[in-house]
Amino acid sequence: MKSDRLLSIILLLQTRGLVQAAELAERLEVSVRTIYRDVEALSTSGIPIYTERGRHGGIALLPGFRTDVTGLTEDESRALFVLTARGTHAALGLDAALGSALRKVMAAIPEPHRPAAELTSRRILVDPERWMMRPRPAVDLDILNAAVFNDRRLALRYRRSGAVEPGDYVLDPYGLVVKAGVWYLVADKSGSPRLFRADRVVKASIIDEPVRRRPGWELADVWKTMRYEAEQRRLPLLVTVRLRKDALVRFQCVTSGRIIGEIAPEGEDWLRAELVFDNTSETGVLLGLGDQLEVLSPPAVREELARVAAAVVGVYAVGAT
């Protein structure tokens, strides 16, 4: 709707200052000509908006002009309260700020939409952690956060996966990413992008030098590239199983996040499902369902589970003699 687009233009200009018409057009998915027509409509309605010509020109509001956050629809109001788990904000020391911000946003939401927004905050919970995860070590993000927001280089003493001793690194950070409850530092090492798990940082200190990021690269760009490369390197292991119907709830808890497609009936008492794992060693969790589940394919997983099960039987057989 045009009214929503006009409000979006005002809010973008309040946040960004001078913005080129082409950028506004791209963000709002309209033509540049439409943006200029919208600017004219805003000006006619009394909004102090103007354009600057030239290579470094754009569209801006007169200094000092502000508008309240009004005009939110009911769905937009609800969307603001479907937030990530509080643990994410706590790790950044922003739990109290989050609560304060939500109270201010609630006050700014149009009166008719407040009940829906408040109900959403009580009825929807986002928990990024997987089931059955072991407790994670405490993570101190203060220095990493300071380096990221002050655009400074970072000296890191870091223990890589499988390494006996930590190594020393000088990094140029882009930012922090939390994925599935794990915090990562995204940074360049000698001009090449790298990922560093925050819970493996032994020591960190800020170097009083400006960060040396590759020109034109932002955190979202680097993360997208690295995630794609990681996914391409790690081909998924597809496992087909059958399970007893009365074991379905346990099965869903044990394999949360790994089930793909529909769970289909297989005879009178059984169900059939497909799972995805990174490697055969991860499939050991299936043994927790005992004889309530059978792996049908691939053969390598059946062999691995048979080997592990035999080893377990051997341990208890020795203990019984």
Shape: extended
Encode the helix/strand succession as letters: HHHEEHHHHHEEEEEHEHEEEH
Briefly note the structural class of the backbone. Answer: alpha+beta
**Count of helical regions:** 11
The percent range for strand residues is: 25-35%
Mean pLDDT across all amino acids: 83
Radius of gyration over alpha carbons? Answer: 27 Å
Number-wise, the strands total: 11
Provide the fold topology:
Elements: H1 2-16, H2 21-28, H3 32-44, E1 49-52, E2 58-61, H4 74-79, H5 86-91, H6 95-108, H7 114-123, H8 142-149, E3 152-158, E4 167-179, E5 182-189, E6 192-197, E7 201-210, H9 219-233, E8 237-244, H10 248-254, E9 259-266, E10 270-277, E11 293-297, H11 299-320
Antiparallel strand pairs: 1-2, 3-4, 3-7, 4-5, 5-6, 8-10, 8-11, 9-10
Would you give an account of this structure?
The protein contains 11 helices and 11 strands. The chain is of the alpha+beta class. The chain has a 5-stranded antiparallel beta sheet with strand order 6-5-4-3-7, with helices on both faces. It has a 4-stranded antiparallel beta sheet with strand order 9-10-8-11, covered by helices on one side. Helix 2 packs across helix 3. The N and C termini lie far apart (78 Å). 14% of the residues are buried. The mean pLDDT is 83.
